[in-house]
Design brief:
Layout (H helix, E strand, L loop, with lengths): L8 H16 L3 H18 L18
Helix pairs in contact: 1-2
C-alpha cells in the first residue's frame, strides 16, 4: 500500500490543525501559534548548530 502525498502540503497541515482545534475546543489561532513554535524548535534541534542553543522559559507549557 502506498501513501499519497498531498498536493498542497501547507493546506493539508492547516486543515489538520483546524480539525484538531475543533476537536479539542481550542482557538485555531492558539493551535496555529503552538504548532509554529514547536516546528521552530524541531528545526533548531535538527540543525548543525543545535549544540549552540539553550531552551529557556516555559512558553509551550500548558496548564
Amino acid at each position: 500500500m502506498t501513501s499519497r502525498q498531498p498536493r498542497n502540503m501547507a493546506a493539508s497541515v492547516r486543515q489538520r490543525l483546524m480539525n484538531l482545534s475543533r476537536d479539542r475546543g481550542e482557538e485555531f489561532q492558539l493551535v496555529l501559534t503552538r504548532y509554529g513554535l514547536e516546528r521552530l524548535l524541531y528545526r533548531l534541534a535538527h540543525s548543525p548548530h543545535a549544540e549552540q542553543f539553550v531552551l529557556k522559559g516555559a512558553a509551550l507549557f500548558q496548564i
